[in-house]
Design brief:
The protein is an alpha+beta fold. About 20% of the residues lie in helices and about 40% in strands. It has a single domain, classed as 2-Layer Sandwich (Alpha-Beta Plaits).
Length: about 100
């Protein structure tokens, strides 16, 4: 997998902001990305040392719409990664994407 397309963005919620105090960041990742892909992409493009990666998939949430005779998707399918950085690693700045 192309490592430049693994990390899609940062999840901005209250829980994600509270986890930053413990050096844990919540990131949106590609559907086909693995833990190893996430770890290598962070090392290569953001120059941070990762100690732990947890990955979870959220299912889409649908709702019936009788007026239209179908269903509506309220929440899209998403894959998230909770990344814990090493104690001596620098802080993750998702806007500082670096190329070689």
């Amino acid at each position: 997998m192309d490592l430049s397309r693994v990390i899609l963005g940062q999840v901005v919620t209250e829980k994600a902001e509270n986890l930053k105090g413990r050096r844990t960041y919540t990131l949106r990742v590609d559907q086909h990305a693995t833990k190893i892909d996430v770890k290598h992409a962070l090392k290569q493009f953001y120059d941070v040392d990762v100690t732990h990666v947890r990955v979870m998939c959220t299912r889409p949430k649908t709702r019936a719409v009788p007026a239209l005779g179908g269903t509506m998707e309220k929440r899209h399918r998403m894959k998230k990664a909770l990344v814990t950085l090493a104690p001596k690693s620098k802080v993750l700045d998702i806007t500082s994407f670096k190329t070689r």
